[in-house]
Amino acid sequence: MATAEEMKWGITGGGGQLARTLSELLQKKRIPYKSWDRQEMDITDLKSLEKIAQYKPSVLVNCAAWTNVEGAEDSFDEAIRVNRDGAANVAEIAKKLNIPIIHISTDYVFSGVNKRAWMVDDSTFPTSNYGRSKLQGERALFEIWPEKSIIFRTAWLYGPFGKNFAKSIIRKAIISKEKISVVNDQFGQPTTTLDLAKQIFQAMKNGISAGTYHATNAGEASWWEFARELVKLSDEDTDRVIPISSHELNSKVKRPAYSVLDHSDWSKVGMQGMRDWQSALLEVFPEIKISVEKEK
Ligand SMILES: NC(=O)c1ccc[n+]([C@@H]2O[C@H](COP(=O)([O-])OP(=O)(O)OC[C@H]3O[C@@H](n4cnc5c(N)ncnc54)[C@H](OP(=O)(O)O)[C@@H]3O)[C@@H](O)[C@H]2O)c1
């Protein structure tokens, strides 16, 4: 098998925040890749997926997804079409080319009722349509291409590109002087697109076997704790961040209360888990702040 440096990478969902960070990483390493955004390639359209076979990558990373969690409650069929059927289409191509596929899934496949970190093999029980559609995507991959499907479940993803929680809190912190209400009864792992992209790269370098992996930064926080850290780094008053309950949010989505993921499986494949979320945030914060200021 080719080393990660010799590989040619194909990335779907190229306009998204993870795909853009992964592309940047590969570019810095001078590794050949092609990233197709939604306009160039719709993963629900078999015809447009032919571009992958033409490029002949040696690994595929499926970053394309329906990520509108609220919207999936009213548009489940649409979410399924992308997160299950689209993912299945990409897996079919990977199978045809006999190459590994890394597919990104989510902590939302779990119910969130545990008080300990979720193990890879724990029973899944999504409480939202988004989580249901992503779980069906995981299953589709293992049905179609069990030999070379690698699922990375991540969570609370943020970075300099696109829209994410971290950017919207920093924006509120630096643009206004208003209070910022954030839920304090949902716990998870803020995860940088940079560390996830690096973990994907390292996984290919190590040639890890097919299966499911938990790819989040270590430690845990509530959304409120994460927001306070972001406001502190923005040199603003952290007392502006007001803790509220999920109930007060009035969301139609039932999100997991506790979705911290266990990382013990990384050592079994000779890899280290991802570093703690605070260190990761410290590294990427300046770039995210610059990107928020540019978008002002
Ligand atoms: N963000 C998180 O907190 C989080 C948490 C857990 C797991 N994940 C998973 O991580 C992966 C990457 O997420 P992300 O945060 O980078 O999401 P993102 O920024 O929303 O990117 C997803 C990309 O997929 C594209 N897309 C949607 N439908 C498509 C289709 N039919 N064909 C091709 N592309 C399509 C979107 O294009 P448009 O923008 O044009 O629709 C968007 O550019 C996803 O699988 C997501 O489910 C994310």
Secondary structure class reads alpha/beta
Q: Roughly how many Å is the radius of gyration? A: 19 Å
CATH superfamily membership of the domain at 9-164 and 190-219 and 260-275, which one?
A: NAD(P)-binding Rossmann-like Domain
Strand proportion, as a percent range, falls in 5-15%
User: Which ranges are low-confidence, i.e. pLDDT below 50, for 5 or more consecutive residues?
Assistant: none
Strand order of the largest sheet: 2-1-3-4-5-10
CATH class of the domain at 9-164 and 190-219 and 260-275: Alpha Beta
Assigned CATH architecture of the domain at 9-164 and 190-219 and 260-275: 3-Layer(aba) Sandwich
How confident is the prediction overall: mean pLDDT? Answer: 97
Query: SSE string, helix = H, strand = E?
Result: EHEHEHHEHEEHEEEHEEHEHH
